[in-house]
Amino acid sequence: MADHWPELPYGAWRETCSALHLYTQILGKYRLARTPWVNHSWHATLYVNARGFTTGLVPDKAAGVEIVLDLVGHAVTGATTDGRTGRFDLGPMSVAAFHARFLDLLATLGATTDFHGRPNEVADPIPFAADTAERPYDADAANRFFRACVSVERVLARFRTGFLGKVSPVHLFWGSFDLAVTRFSGRRAPLHPGGIPALPDAVTCEAYSHEVSSAGFWPGGGPIDYAAFYSYAYPAPPGFAEARVAPEAARFDTALGEFLLPYDAVRRASDPEAVLTAFLESTYHAAADLGQWDRASLECAPGLPRRPRPL
């Protein structure tokens, strides 16, 4: 059980986690600069794969480019549809050094090296090329984080199948560094006030253009110093904060405006997947019922392998 839901004490790998967050931003900004806009910024996200996190295939000039943050082999790898490959190793370094090596990798691949060079959604962002402070790299912690994301992605992906309405992929938002899935009621939402640090309000407003129930996983950082699952609604319907949700370890954080469930409460459970699923389902039900979503039209039974959805 510990292998699939490994320990992930945030304090012990805080600096490596911060470095990985910024490294994923660099990969994500390359994808963002090359990919046509998709609603809610879905074109910019990263995805869990067998080695870590991938950009997927990015259109660049006449070729397609895929970049992978490999947290098994601890490297950044690149490959193109015309047969080029390249890589550099992960290890202790500054963000500026990572950024420079990443640009060299893109050049080796014949890819475009022009993209926005400053982090988003972090306080007091330092341009990547100017962030010269040395960062540690705890390879074991990075790999445990990856393995945790593999387990989380599996549960989020199964949860995603129980919805007929508009629903996002399971993807990593590198701005906030969370693995997330989002369901939509189909109705327009009030204009979001914006105000997220180092993120244009136009991006935030477009992301929350329609009513959502969103859930995901943070490794820690920012307002919380532990790994946790979250769930929120926008706009939050009256009574959402007081809703009863499962499991008992879940609580509503008034400062964040969302429900939180510590990762350790899931990891230590006899059936982690069932506990996490209960959190996802109960918080979604609170958002959908209190928000008067048309649940009968939006939901279906969870998907099963090799079984078409019955009509």
Concise summary:
This protein is of the alpha+beta class. The chain is built from 7 helices and 14 strands. Strands 1, 2, 3, 4, 5 and 6 form a 6-stranded antiparallel sheet that branches. A 6-stranded antiparallel sheet has the order 9-10-11-12-14-13.
What does this protein look like?
- This protein has helices at residues 10-34, 95-108, 139-160, 201-207, 263-267, 272-290, 295-298, and strands spanning 47-48, 52-54, 58-60, 63-70, 75-80, 85-89, 93-94, 134-135, 171-173, 178-188, 210-218, 228-234, 251-253, 258-262.
- The chain has 311 residues and is an alpha+beta fold.
- Helix 1 packs parallel to helix 2 (95-108).
- It is globular, with a radius of gyration of 19 Å.
- The model has no long low-confidence stretch (mean pLDDT 97).
Note the main attributes of this structure.
single chain; 311 residues; alpha+beta; 31% helix
The quaternary organization reads as single chain
The secondary-structure class comes to alpha+beta
* Rg, Cα atoms, Å: 19 Å
Residues in helix, %: 25-40%
Q: What does the secondary structure layout of this molecule look like, with pairings?
A:
Elements: H1 10-34, E1 47-48, E2 52-54, E3 58-60, E4 63-70, E5 75-80, E6 85-89, E7 93-94, H2 95-108, E8 134-135, H3 139-160, E9 171-173, E10 178-188, H4 201-207, E11 210-218, E12 228-234, E13 251-253, E14 258-262, H5 263-267, H6 272-290, H7 295-298
Antiparallel strand pairs: 1-2, 2-4, 3-4, 4-5, 5-6, 7-8, 9-10, 10-11, 11-12, 12-14, 13-14
Helix pairs in contact: 1-2, 3-6
